[in-house]
Every structure is written in C-alpha cells, then in structure tokens.
C-alpha cells in the first residue's frame, strides 16, 4: 500500500514532485522550479523554468536578472501532467505563496515561510485543508511568542520623539522586513521622511510599484548628518556596526527581528533598541494553524523541528522532520 504523500520526495536541496519532475524551492539550478517566495533560501537563479506569483517573479528578476518565468496568480490553478498546482497567500512577504498540490485524490500544501499577523505589505495567510501540510518551524519553541506589532512600532516612535537630536537606525532585512517596518510606521501615523541605505532602494521601489505605500523615502547617500536627526534610518543588519553608520547623527541602534526576543542576540549585535518583529509564525501561530488545517500528516522543516513534531505526536497527528538546506535565521 502506498504511503501518504509518497509522490513527494524531500532532498537536502529541495522537494521533488516526482510525477512531474519539478522541484519546490530548489537551492540548485533545475529544469522546473516551483518557488514559494523571493528569499534567497527559497528562490535561486539559474533554473530553466520557474513558476511563481507575479510579485515573486519580479523579485527574482530584480535579484538574479530575467527569469524564464511562468506567472501563477493567487487562486489560480495550473496543471502539469496529472498534478494540479495552485498558489495561495502565505502572508510572509510580498508575493509569498503556499503551493497546493493535488494528485490522485491526495492534497499536499507546501507552505514555504508564513505568518498569521496582519501585515500592510502582503496578502494575509489563507488556510487550506489538506492531507499533508509542510510547515516551517523557524520559531518552533513555546518560548517564542511575538508581542503585538503596534506596541513594537510605538517603542520605535517613542525613542525617536525622546531623542530629537539623534536618529534611530533600524537594521532590517532588505526583502520584506525593511518594507514592513516602514509601512507599519505609516500605519501608526508617522509620515515624516525615512532615510534608507542604498542597498534597500531597489526592493523598496519594487514594493511601491506593486501598490505598497511606503511614503517619502530619502537615500542616505550624501545627505547631511544634521538633516537625519530626529528621523528613522533603515539599513541592512550588516550595516548597523559598519563604517557606513558613522555618517549618522549619534544613532540609536535598533534591529527588527523575531530573534530580538533572545536578549543575548541583541547584546551580541550591540542593539540598544530590540524590536521583536518577525515575518515568521511564532509558536502559537504554528500550533493554531495546524489545529485549523487538521492535516493527516505534518512535515516540519527550517528550524526547531523536534518541538513541533512532539506537539503533533501528542495530538495523534503523524509528523516528521525534513532535512532541507535553509537558514535558521530570518533571511535577507
């Protein structure tokens, strides 16, 4: 008797959909790639053909040059051989999708990365009933319970108002996190110009082209130091303690990441203002999602697999960990 989902074959470099010889989020060039979203541990260049949402294809074009892309919109279903393939929102970053695979009466959903929190920069996660659910576990431990997003943004605004002669420089990943912090600030009524590192410009422009409101963004470039006092400055995390930051007016160093829950990480990175803001599901979001979807099996990847597998087993849900190549940390 065939095992549930035996037509999907996990490998360290991706998941093979055997009936159609296509790979989900392959980390090496392949003939057919089904891509969930644009982060580098899921989307690589060099594939002969790529299927992804229009937004993800635009991100891949911006990062890797023109792709042999095939656009699949949210809610659209395409057919390859005997496999029906649909893309539904994952709520992770712009264009992020879960890939829904239907084959001979079985449904498998490969979620990629996802979150359940509201985010003004991307379409909310859509739960899909299925036989097998492939879930991430980046924050798959009960200690990880992310605080209210608005409260974290209010901390940033308060620090800014309390230090009008300084700037607050926020380290945030170039794809997704930087744009979300900016959009969340706008949602809280902060309409002042925000200064950005040159490495963020291209993807911020792409988000604006896709209808995300980011407001007035000014490249740090040759801006005079005094002009940035009393303002938010956004940069990649690697620039926080780089020579680049010396051009800023007495900066308060902040970082937006789910890992800021771990105090030692903030200390190691010399972060004065840790902002616990993640684009991944926390423990409660992971377990709530599994309860809501109620799959027959759960396959766990990218993170703390053991705790989530144990949670499933105590609830009579068959579960196993997949050894896929990826980043434990939030990427990009």
UniProtKB/TrEMBL annotation:
UniProt-listed SMART domains: Lactamase_B (SM00849)
GO MF entries: exonuclease activity; ligase activity; RNA endonuclease activity
Enzyme class: hydrolase
Pfam families tied to this protein: Lactamase_B
Domain of life: Bacteria
Keyword Nuclease among record annotations: yes
EC number: 3.1.-.-
Metallo-beta-lactamase domain location: 11-173
The keyword Nucleotide-binding is annotated on this UniProt entry: no
Record keywords: Exonuclease, Hydrolase, Ligase, Nuclease
Gene3D superfamilies linked: Ribonuclease Z/Hydroxyacylglutathione hydrolase-like (3.60.15.10)
Name assigned to this protein: Ligase-associated DNA damage response exonuclease
